[in-house]
User: Which sequence fits this backbone?
């Protein structure tokens, strides 16, 4: 019988190479982080509010080599300047160039120095289930990276204040973990292109809800351009609140249309009220464009329609009526 040996048998462990340690998913996320971390900054602001001056924080994304940055409008609300800290520790100031609470977007400008800009993508091509990476400064931890998927598209959120509000359309919903401080940070696709600016948390507990991001698309790129050039965005205003509703069957067949916008409220002394539009009317056309949902009317209210007359076609009872309206400027204050 063989006796047990007291000899110690050496066991060798081979340390995996970096390439072997990273699977395909990890390589995508680390690649996006490498691209974006130098372009995402931690913002510190002093806000003037009802309770006096308060400290605020958020994230920003550098989008030009000369220091223009994007963030959420609510991050810099009540402030005209602040401080920016990069992931490598470099600190500088910034000024607010323009802010638009009705899209929850703002443009900032670094006080000095050049910075590595992120590349803006286009959210219009996103699909549900697509990998996205969020980069920001949650809870004061700068340069944090989380990953997830696009969990839904086409969401809407209400933005603005007590005097003026507006639906931000086609908001991106993601399950990438977001926390306070992520607002204004980047939501990127697998190629490191910024396709959204993180704006809100949804859920009863921090980090256990769904994140929302304002998409980077043709509409928001025009908003960004207007903020850089003029410091604000001009929009037309009619004074109608309402939502989509099916048309009566007879009129639906007659007009070859299945839905219109039911007027639920008309603001007193608004352009709509002065034109004679009433609650209960169903708007079907605006300037000869079909209107089926509130967002269709909202899309019509561009700055070039301010103080310009056009026709609104609507259903009242069993009649189709035409009214001439002259929108005024929607004041965001």
Assistant:
């Amino acid at each position: 019988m063989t006796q047990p040996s007291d000899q110690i048998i050496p066991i060798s462990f081979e340390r995996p190479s970096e390439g072997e340690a990273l699977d395909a998913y990890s390589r995508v996320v680390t690649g996006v982080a490498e691209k974006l971390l130098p372009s995402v900054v931690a913002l510190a602001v002093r806000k003037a509010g009802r309770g006096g001056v308060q400290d605020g924080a958020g994230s920003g994304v550098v989008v030009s080599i000369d220091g223009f940055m994007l963030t959420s409008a609510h991050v810099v609300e009540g402030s005209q300047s602040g401080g920016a800290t990069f992931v490598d520790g470099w600190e500088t100031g910034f000024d607010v160039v323009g802010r638009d609470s009705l899209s929850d977007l703002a443009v900032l400008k670094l006080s000095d120095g050049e910075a590595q800009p992120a590349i803006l993508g286009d959210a219009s091509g996103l699909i549900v289930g697509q990998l996205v990476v969020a980069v920001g400064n949650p809870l004061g931890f700068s340069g944090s990276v989380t990953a997830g998927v696009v969990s839904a598209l086409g969401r809407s959120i209400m933005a603005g204040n007590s005097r003026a509000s507006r639906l931000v359309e086609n908001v991106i919903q993601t399950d990438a973990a977001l926390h306070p401080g992520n607002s204004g940070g980047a939501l990127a696709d697998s190629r490191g292109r910024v396709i959204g600016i993180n704006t809100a948390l949804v859920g009863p507990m921090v980090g256990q809800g769904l994140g929302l991001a304002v998409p980077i698309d043709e509409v928001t790129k025009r908003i960004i351009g207007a903020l850089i050039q003029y410091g604000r965005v001009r929009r037309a205003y009619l004074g109608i609140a309402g939502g989509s509703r099916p048309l009566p069957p007879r009129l639906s067949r007659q007009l070859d249309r299945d839905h219109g916008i039911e007027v639920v409220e008309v603001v007193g002394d608004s352009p709509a009220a002065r034109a004679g539009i009433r609650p209960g009317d169903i708007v079907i056309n605006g300037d000869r464009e079909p209107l089926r949902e509130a967002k269709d009317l909202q899309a019509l209210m561009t700055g070039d329609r301010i103080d310009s007359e056009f026709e609104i076609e609507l259903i009242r009872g069993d009649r189709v009526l035409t009214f001439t309206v002259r929108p005024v400027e929607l004041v965001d204050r």
